[in-house]
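Sharing in case it's useful to others searching the archive later.

Someone asked me privately for the predicted structure of UDP-2,3-diacylglucosamine diphosphatase LpxI, so I'm posting the question and my answer publicly. Question first, with the sequence:
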Amino acid sequence: MTGGGPLGIVAGGGALPARLAAAARAAGRSVFVVALAGEGAEVDADATVGLGQVGRLFSLLRTAGCHEVAIAGYVSRPDLGDLKLDWTGIRLLPRLAPKLRGGDDALMRAIVGAFEDEGFRVVGPEEVAAPLLATECCLTVSSPDGADWADIARADAIVGALAPFDVGQGAVVARGIALAIEAVEGTDAMLARLADLPAHVRGTGKAARAGVLLKAAKHAQERRLDLPAIGPETVRRAAAAGLAGIALRAGDALILDRHDVIAAADAEGLFVVGYTAHDLSRHCGAGA
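And my answer, the predicted structure tokens:
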């Protein structure tokens, strides 16, 4: 990060905003956190704004001296009829409203553009907290076997093929069968519905684990706002779904609370692995 002044953090829900704030402070950078009301931000905030209070958000960040801004955490897609827009929000509505009806990436790019037009530099999690990025390695005692690598390769191909349609950042494959594709419901809900599938197509717990949850950024997506992430709760839900492990494309996904993720995975007998295209080729052949 090169900008002067505190790092502004616009905080949605989840653990990521707090992790970014901690990383910035550890690097000697002060932070100014603005939480989005109603999103359950898990971070101590300096101020709170409603989703429609766009002008107030920009004003708060400027008054705090922020030149760089990180936008982190999940945000529910709003119902335009329920938004209480201030004047700046009304001015931006024609630009953002059509994107609300499209995919996530189009909306993310429009939001970044709005901040940049106001003179802010939007930075991504990898710039603020590079150690959160998944790297090429297996983090756990358990590691993928040949069948798991075949599932990882198939899930990677599925996520890649869906990228032009701006659909999800995750998929679950077990024994070569695509069990689930992440859409607007998110990873937790996707894993929860695996329990409704027949036992013969999915894993059934520690004695017969099968299948892989794969998380990877979509090709050419807006990385500053929407990198996929896992945390300890992801591991617990993957275990409850009977999966054998979690695969993250190296450099394209975040691991929150890494120590806790590893501990939870080892306790359940799951693997957590960061992989590259070279790994897929090595384990699955040139056509992977």
